[in-house]
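Objective 1.3, modelling of assemblies. Example input:
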Amino acid sequence: MSQSIKLALPTGRIFGETVDLLTRSGFALPEDVRQARRLHITNGGNQSSVLVKDRDVPTYVEHGVVDAGIVGHDVLAETNPDVYQPLDLGIGCCEMVVARSKGQTPGAYRDLPIVRVATKYPEVTFRHFHGHGIPVELILLSGSVELAPMLGLADCIVDLVQTGRTLAANGLEVDEVLFRSTARLIVNRASFRLKGRLVGEFIASLAREVGR
Amino acid sequence: MQQRSNLQIPSGVQCFYGREAHLRKEVERRVGEVFSGWSYEEIIVPLFDYFEVFARGGGPSFTDHIYRFIGRNGELLALRPDFTALVAKVVASRMQDRSLPLRLFYSGEVLRYQPPQAGHQKELFQIGLEHIGDGLAADLEVLLVAFEALDRLGVNDAVVTLGHAGFVLGILEESQVPAEARPQLLEAMRYRDADRVDDILGRKAPPEVMEAMRLFGGPEVLERARAIAQHPGSQEAVARLHSVATELEALGLGHRLQLDLGEVRGFDYYTGMVFEIYAPGTGLELGGGGRYDSLLGKFGVPLPAVGFSLSLDRLSQRVKDHLGTSREAAPEAIVLGKQPSRGLAEALELRRQGMKVRIS
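Predicted structure (tokens):
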């Protein structure tokens, strides 16, 4: 039986760059992939893909229903899946930051008895603040996190920032950069072994393309 | 306080009935038979013990997952997160006079706190064995037992990936990675994350560290391994793996072995050979084990040991299509009437003859 690789691709922020990278590496996706609503597609080469929400990519890979996936480091930092992460693809570059209202003294929120932080990244937030001994009240949001300080819901936010324009437009500025986030290739532990050659060749072809 | 429905279940618990329950018992029975067939003796250990017993066995990342509670006298207790520490304790306290080696197997639930999003259950059912008090010859024996147990379940496409704790530790020693960076570095290597390795070292990582993460495949990787690792510990590890691989080859099992010298999972615990078991169609490992020569010493009996455990949960999932079709046998006699004088008396008589009955 000829083996094939199944990938989970994130439909969110880094979808475009992911499609471009796969195409350049010789795994062209169908032309209409950007418009089509199909969730299961055939790539060039011996690949197929499922299109899933960014946050779900590690879940699919960890359980082995797909062999590999592409996902931002921000998602990995938040979900901490037990998967191999052999390659930094260098695309989808962003920063995970703490941001506060413009004009506030940098780091002033640290002196509050408890800091109210709005975020989509509860794990990352707890790890950072509790790691520095600062108590946190978590305000869990699923979008438009930048609104929270303006409306008095939170003292600061923890969020992923690409250009900083959304921050600026909402009267916020970066207080601290937690880490730089780029897209990673992740691989299921069983597939890494049972489809060793195929997975190895796939990693190598992406590595050549991203210059690693 | 909001009243909880009395049917609500806490997250992470499971129950099995009907075909599922039958399947799990069948898997347990078959594996147990194989273990007994190799003269492993069943040991039944307590569900809880002092927390300290388990803490002694595993590293800090492991103790994070233990369910702890306070006993009536204020002592810190824990639900068992694995069997090996309990077996070690029994061996140290009760089996000192026995002649070596000891061959023991166990079967039962372990409890580990795992965040729900990881998709893992908190109650896990393990079947495993420990071979205590014998040298390296036992390594091969436990691998043969593992292969036979998998075959007995029809999982004959399962692959064992074999590595050695001494290899990577030797490399880190050789490349003079500072001791304080090692735990973090092993964590990055666990994910085969070359970029994070660079970050941790603050420089381009030594080529042998990078190469180690890619030492995966057939026996040929041992040649590459020998070439890159000068440290005596690494050389010894390679020689050891070479001998296990050669012996398995001679026994006709070479095709079911892969070498993986880059795997570092469990390195705070294992001291020699380590292995994991994978099968096509299952994304998570079916089991794993290795040599842990320092654990028994922590209980006062410095004996070498090697063992492994299989996940009953994952094995059952894997074999449900071909083992799951057998059902409970139908009753041989249906007895009509529930009066003590008639139906029940008749049923009692049929039961004495050993028949399966159902009262209707």
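Chain B has a mean pLDDT of 89.
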